[in-house]
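User: Teach me something about this protein's shape.
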Amino acid sequence: MKKTKIASTGTTEIQLGLKRTTKTKAAMATAFLTAFAMAGGAQMALADPVANALDASLGALNGAGVGKFNLDARLRYESFDLDSSPDVDRDGSSIRVRYGYTTPTFNGFSAMVEGETLNAVFNDGNDIHPLDDLGDGTDLNQLWIQYANDAFGNVKVGRQLYTLDDHRFIGHVGWRQNIQTFDAVTAGFTAIDGLDVRGFYIDAQNSVTGDYLKHDSYGLNGSFSFDDWLKLTGFGYQIEGDEDGGANAAISNDTYGVRATGAIGAGAAKISYALSYANQEDNSGSPSGADFDADYYAADLSAGIAGATFGAGLEILEPDFRTPLATLHKFHGFADALLPITGFQQGLEDYYIYGGYNLGNGLSFKVIYHWYDPEDDAAGFDGGDELDLVAKYQFSKHANILAKYGNYDSDGGVGPSGTQGAFDKEMWTVEVNVKY
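Assistant: First, the predicted structure itself:
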């Protein structure tokens, strides 16, 4: 099931920067909300009749007892300028459609097949985001068979989506148009009330750039829920890229960690928290000469009341700590300015605050502000800061409009291993999603 449409780029560091403009962040935030409102009205007018027609046809098929058909379509406009040498300007639209079928369950067994097609629309491929341009075309996205038993758990074999916990170590990178999948064997054990044990073996990673990257990776993740106030998780992952020291060998690492999450009622409010710690070392799959022993710390505390949420948190990655299979877009800002697959040369400290509000009638928004510093501050650099905005309008059961804005202002202090610094970057995204 190897993807053949594009040659592997291995673990090339992903850093996309943007030329700064003279507009202030406050002005850009206002523009963001205006653009969201205008795009929302236009795209809703296009998506609503399509959603109604699909609701009728797919609803009839799925109600016939012949299995389940799924459809997931996303029309996206995205814009940024890469301030590098040479400059790369991107300003374009793309459409991604996933279409699949899951069989009915027979004596615990079921199977699924899913395709994915990604193409530029209204412009050329070199106008859309570089990662989406690399991942364009048609893929076999999922093909698996599963045995599931309500009393014990499940085993799944084949190409599949797979995530663990908050996607910090194992994720699907669903923000990009071409989602990440794994050729893997995964299993879950749930026979004991409150206990959830998951294990995996990954033979290959199908990345967002369309690369087929060989693996010999495995891991175990076990959690126990005491009650709403405490869920404890322990995990160990041995990630190995090419055994022959090939293109993705640099991702190799052994990681062991713990995580605690929970929520507590406080009158009309709900207090939620998440705490994580992990230690990571190089392993036998690492390139010759690799030698690292790094820690990771994370904490998040939030309060929700009457539709509003406020919170703050931090993430600390010591130099060379790497999470190559994570959903990186979820961490360190929407601008995606800080995405080193093999870790930060001087580590990273990310402190952030956020606030959000659900206005009702399907409309919600969130604002996040990050401050960055190198974890190893020997050079005396400041890591910069970032303002992020996201707004969503769920205008029907199966369709929504989403807009995101990220504005990263660097100061040269954080970057991938072997380099120093990061680009200023500003990114806009507006999209309409239809999902069944």
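Now, about its shape. The first strand starts at residue 68 and ends at 82. Residues 25-435 form a domain with the Porin fold (CATH 2.40.160.10). If you'd like, I can walk through any region in more detail.
User: That's plenty for now, thanks!
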